[in-house]
């Protein structure tokens, strides 16, 4: 059973507009969440993260929002650029997996930003 | 540039023929991970090394083994690949006590 769900396999957005990528989770033991971005033929690269004690984290054009009561997080990209076109993975870390913590990934959402 | 390197990028093996995938890192990170990612699926953790301590995920098949001879290198051995083992294999590293992982480009394994 998937603990991290990205229900939209793909998203298409116009350049300059906002991209919103969503992620839902089921495990209340998750205490840290990360977003990764993956271009074709490359490994995932870390984008932004958020601890469960926060509800928002911002880094330039990227903002992650966390709604713990709904077990939902979202990644906002504003403004979207064609170079943002990639697959975005949501990942979560469980507090009961020790200090290092292993990540549970979602299936990813493919974002296409059209010029 | 510090990085995670995976060789080869593409590997073709025959059904039942042992195959080894390799990963090296110049980041000097203590932790190394191996993930399996099938098409349109989430990366799935197979095992990880916490320095020399090997940690196997409960549902990782016995067919998959790993070796870490030193800090820089980690190998994934598939003893008898089946058609279902065709996937992208991702290696990742992280420093101690951080959650961010740094991934290599992956090795795409084809089993014929």
Write up what this structure looks like.
- The complex is a heterodimer of chains A (115) and B (112).
- By secondary structure, chain A is an all-beta fold.
- Chain A contains no helices and 11 strands.
- In chain A, the strands form 2 sheets. In chain A, strands 2, 4, 5, 9, 10 and 11 form a 6-stranded mixed beta sheet that branches. A 5-stranded antiparallel beta sheet of chain A has the order 1-3-8-7-6, with no helix packed on it.
- The model of chain A has no long low-confidence stretch (mean pLDDT 93).
- The termini of chain B are far apart.
- In chain B, 34% of the residues are buried.
- Chains A and B meet through strand 4, strand 5 and strand 10 of A and strand 5, strand 9 and strand 10 of B.
As residue ranges, the low-confidence spans of chain A are none
Shape of chain B: globular
For the largest interface, the chains and their residue counts are: A-B, 25 and 26 residues
Radius of gyration of chain A, rounded? 14 Å
Q: Helicity level of chain A, as a percent range?
A: under 10%
H and E string of chain B: EEEEEEEEEEE
Distance between the termini of chain A: 38 Å
**SSE sequence of chain A, one letter per element:** EEEEEEEEEEE
Task: Map the helices and strands.
The complex is a heterodimer of chains A (115) and B (112).
Chain A: E1 4-5, E2 10-14, E3 19-25, E4 30-38, E5 45-51, E6 56-59, E7 62-67, E8 72-77, E9 86-94, E10 103-105, E11 109-114
Parallel strand pairs in A: 2-11
Antiparallel strand pairs in A: 1-3, 3-8, 4-5, 4-9, 6-7, 7-8, 9-10, 9-11
Chain B: E1 4-7, E2 10-13, E3 19-25, E4 31-37, E5 44-50, E6 53-56, E7 64-67, E8 73-78, E9 87-94, E10 102-103, E11 107-111
Parallel strand pairs in B: 2-11
Antiparallel strand pairs in B: 1-3, 3-8, 4-5, 4-9, 5-6, 7-8, 9-10, 9-11
């Amino acid at each position: 059973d998937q603990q991290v769900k990205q229900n939209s396999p793909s998203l298409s957005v116009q350049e300059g507009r906002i991209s919103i990528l969503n992620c839902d989770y089921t495990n209340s033991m998750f205490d840290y969440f990360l977003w990764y971005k993956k271009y074709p033929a490359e490994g995932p690269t870390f984008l932004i993260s958020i601890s469960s004690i926060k509800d928002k984290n911002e880094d330039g054009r990227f903002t992650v929002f966390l709604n713990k009561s709904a077990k939902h997080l979202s990644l906002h990209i504003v403004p979207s650029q064609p170079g943002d076109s990639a697959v975005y993975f949501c990942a979560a870390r469980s507090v009961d997996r020790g200090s290092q913590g292993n990540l549970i990934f979602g299936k990813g959402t493919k974002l296409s930003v059209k010029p | 540039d510090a990085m995670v390197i995976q060789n080869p990028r593409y590997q073709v093996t025959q059904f039942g023929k042992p195959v080894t995938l390799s990963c090296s890192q110049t980041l000097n990170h203590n932790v190394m991970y191996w993930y399996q990612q099938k098409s349109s699926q989430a990366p799935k953790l197979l095992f990880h090394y916490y320095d020399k301590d090997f940690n196997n995920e409960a549902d990782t098949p016995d067919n998959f083994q790993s070796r870490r001879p030193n800090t820089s290198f980690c190998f994934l051995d598939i003893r008898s690949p089946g058609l279902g083992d065709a996937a992208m294999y991702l290696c990742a590293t992280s420093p101690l006590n951080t959650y961010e992982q740094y991934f290599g480009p992956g090795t795409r394994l084809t089993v014929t």
